[in-house]
Amino acid sequence: MSDSEGCLFCSIVKGEVPSTKVYEDEQVFAFEDIAPKAKVHVLIVPKKHVASVAELADSDSRTLAHIVDVARDIARERYNGSFRLVFNTGADAGQTVFHAHAHVLTGEVLDE
Ligand code: AMP
Ligand code: ZN
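That is the input. Now the predicted structure with adenosine monophosphate docked in place:
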């Protein structure tokens, strides 16, 4: 189920909670992770609230594909094009914010 009420990332998209914006278009919003796990750690979220990437794959595969394009472009602009793309999906996998988001990790040689 999708519930955007009280959702942190919906508030960030709306500008109600401050963030360091990296990129924005009609479909997605990208911003710096507040607790970076790599030299460059950007979150890309669909503007429309969906709880996880599994839901996004069901409802809007076009936006999911677009997130990969945006990740690629960030990694080209901020580093040499190499990047790790992570979607924690479900609490057991470490998802803590239940608005779909891609972690883009780049900017350096990453640990395993
Ligand atoms: P996940 O554990 O996959 O749900 O990822 C949630 C991510 O959101 C974590 O990497 C947090 O550091 C990040 N985060 C939490 N609050 C904020 C915030 N206000 N601004 C930017 N990133 C945040
Ligand atoms: Zn949301």
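The chain has three helices and five strands.
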